[in-house]
Design brief:
Helix content of chain A: under 10%
Number of strands of chain A: 10
Order of helices and strands of chain A: HEEEHEEEEEEE
Radius of gyration of chain B: 22 Å
Strand content of chain B: 5-15%
Shape of chain A: globular
Distance between the termini of chain A: 49 Å
Radius of gyration of chain A: 15 Å
Largest sheet of chain A: 4 strands, antiparallel
Oligomer: heterodimer
Helix content of chain B: 55-70%
Largest interface: A-B, 24 and 22 residues
Number of strands of chain B: 2
Structural class of chain A: mainly beta
Number of helices of chain B: 4
Distance between the termini of chain B: 4 Å
Order of helices and strands of chain B: EHHHHE
Chain lengths: 149, 161
């Protein structure tokens, strides 16, 4: 019962509740991609074609937890703080949006520097890591940052 | 005067209790199987297999739910009452544990995992778990009442010495 009683507060971030920081981290052939301050990779969902809307809810949000925060995150160079906005989700949570892309973690990433969600086709579209420019990251030889359609 | 004692069966409605117990056992068994199958669907259908700890636990839930359900459905001959009772108790604990785990993961995190919302699969699973608990508890009660009690020795009359 104690567990249930203390569980009434909404989690601000399912994996890293107190983290509100974005920076760039090297990920092999993907180059520099967005990560949180512990180095966990974050992803964009290609189905999210508008910056003010997320198409990842329910089971999708359980497998791809949105990067949520209570206030604007700290942004380290070379990321551009002007590209950061917040998206209201249910329950008073705000999801971090970078260059128009709502950001998510991937439950299949078990440690920092994992990029197991890269190019996964789940819940109706593909998932990609992002470059600091805001474009989706693809491994070298697969189009680089040129394709952000 | 000599008292003659005879074996007289209890005037209990054991057959109706037995029928109710069997029905409750079947319903509870099917509910456990539904619970397990729903977890398997989430494991494969919506990629829960990638979630550390939770993914394997969903697979375990499927195996345990179906195994308990099959045991409860199986005609086990002479050992049926004991085995079915144990399986029913196990099924109640299993279903209650599954509900508690969901409640924790919905409200905060369970093994670092936070469940989002109450989609149809979760509602169906919750309903099956609740049915399993109620049915199996009813089975335990009804089967106890239906169990043949040792016939009591009663004075049936007296005969002259």
């Amino acid at each position: 019962m104690a567990v249930l009683a203390t569980g009434c507060q909404a989690a601000t971030n399912e994996l890293h509740p107190s983290r509100e920081e974005l920076k760039a981290g090297a990920r092999g052939s993907l180059g520099q991609v967005l990560v949180d301050d512990e180095g966990h990779t974050v992803y964009l969902f290609e189905k999210d074609d508008e910056p003010d809307e997320s198409y990842c809810h329910d089971a999708c949000a359980s497998v791809w937890p949105p990067l949520t925060t209570s206030r604007a995150p700290v942004v380290e160079a070379p990321l551009d703080s002007s590209k950061v906005t917040l998206l209201e989700r249910g329950g008073g949570l705000k999801q971090v949006v970078y260059a128009g892309h709502p950001l998510y973690y991937y439950q299949g990433d078990t440690s920092p520097k994992d990029t197991n969600g890269q190019e996964k086709d789940q819940f109706g579209a593909h998932w990609y890591t992002l470059h600091p420019s805001g474009q989706k990251a693809e491994a070298e030889g697969e189009g680089g940052e040129s394709d952000d359609s | 005067m000599k008292v003659v004692r005879a074996m007289i069966p209890e005037p209990e409605t054991t057959s109706s209790h037995s029928g109710a117990a069997t029905f409750a056992r079947y319903v509870g068994a099917l509910a456990l199987i539904v619970t397990g199958v729903m977890h398997l669907q989430q494991y494969y259908g919506v990629y829960y297999r990638v979630i550390p700890t939770i993914g394997p636990l969903f697979l375990v839930n499927f195996v345990v739910g179906v195994a308990l359900g099959l045991v409860l459905l199986a005609p086990l001959g002479q050992r049926a009452p004991e085995v079915h009772h144990l399986a029913a108790i196990g099924g109640i604990v299993f279903a209650a544990g599954t509900i508690i785990a969901l409640a924790v993961s919905e409200n905060r995190t369970l093994f670092g995992f936070h469940e989002h919302g109450y989609r149809a699969a979760i509602v169906i699973s919750l309903a099956a778990e609740a049915v399993a608990i109620v049915s199996l508890a009813a089975y335990l009660v009804a089967s106890r009442r239906a169990a043949p009690t040792p016939a009591r020795l009663r004075p049936s009359g007296a005969s002259p010495a």
